[in-house]
Amino acid sequence: MSRIGRLPIDIPAGVTITVDGQDVAVKGPKGELSLTVARPIEVKVEEGQVLVTRPDDERESRSLHGLTRTLINNNIIGVTQGYTKGLEVVGTGYRVAQKGSSIEFALGFSHPVLVDPPSGISFTVEGNNKVTVSGIDKQAVGEVAANIRKIRKPEPYKGKGIRYAGEVVRRKAGKAGK
């Protein structure tokens, strides 16, 4: 049995979970998220807890059991606390500025790079080199942060570029002199 999958999920105060067949809707103070559960997995709400069960020990059922439980738990955390991902801009002349709800990067290109937030995601800029991506959907927050990082990945020689907060960039020595 999956150790993660069989753990019950406690429903915090202010969160309502509705299960309609394979669709699970989670509603909380920060918003609403929905999830479609894969076919063999079953979800039940009993006594203030969400229980995820699987009908058999087939390979597919086992692999989806823990995943489904974790996705539902992530939705509950998202609608109560939300998720954030920090990014740092490192490099001489590299900076970021807030332009309304969008952010504008100066990253050594011949033009500024403007990034608009998708629905459900918000940006905050601290100083001129820190960006925080926040929202209620863990997957969306991570994807937007990864797409921003992809604009100018940290390079291994000087470490310039956009990196996650706390990310350690492995450095290379460069060319040896004569």
Describe this structure in a few short sentences.
With 178 residues, the protein is of the alpha+beta class. It has helices at residues 59-80, 138-151; strands at 9-10, 16-20, 23-28, 31-36, 42-46, 49-53, 83-90, 95-99, 102-106, 113-115, 121-126, 130-135, 161-164. A 4-stranded antiparallel beta sheet has the order 11-12-7-13, with helices on one face. A 3-stranded antiparallel beta sheet has the order 1-6-5, with helices on one face. A 3-stranded antiparallel beta sheet has the order 2-3-4, covered by helices on one side.
What do these coordinates show?
This protein is α+β, with helices and mostly antiparallel strands and 178 residues long. Helix content is 20%, strand content 37%. The protein contains two helices and 13 strands. The protein has a four-stranded antiparallel beta sheet with strand order 11-12-7-13, with helices on one face. A three-stranded antiparallel beta sheet has the order 1-6-5, with helices on one face. The protein is elongated, with a radius of gyration of 21 Å.
* Rough outline: elongated
Give the biggest beta sheet.
Answer: 4 strands, antiparallel
Counting H and I runs of at least 4 residues, what is the number of helices? Answer: 2
- Calculate Rg over CA atoms: 21 Å
Derived from helix and strand composition plus strand pairing, the structural class reads alpha+beta
Strand content: 35-45%
Query: How many strands appear in the DSSP assignment?
Result: 13
Q: Give the neighbour order of strands across the main sheet.
A: 11-12-7-13
The arrangement of helices and strands along the chain is: EEEEEEHEEEEEEHE
Binned, the helix content reads 10-25%
Overall residue-averaged pLDDT value: 95
Can you tell me the residue ranges where pLDDT is under 50 for at least 5 consecutive residues? none
Distance between the termini: 62 Å
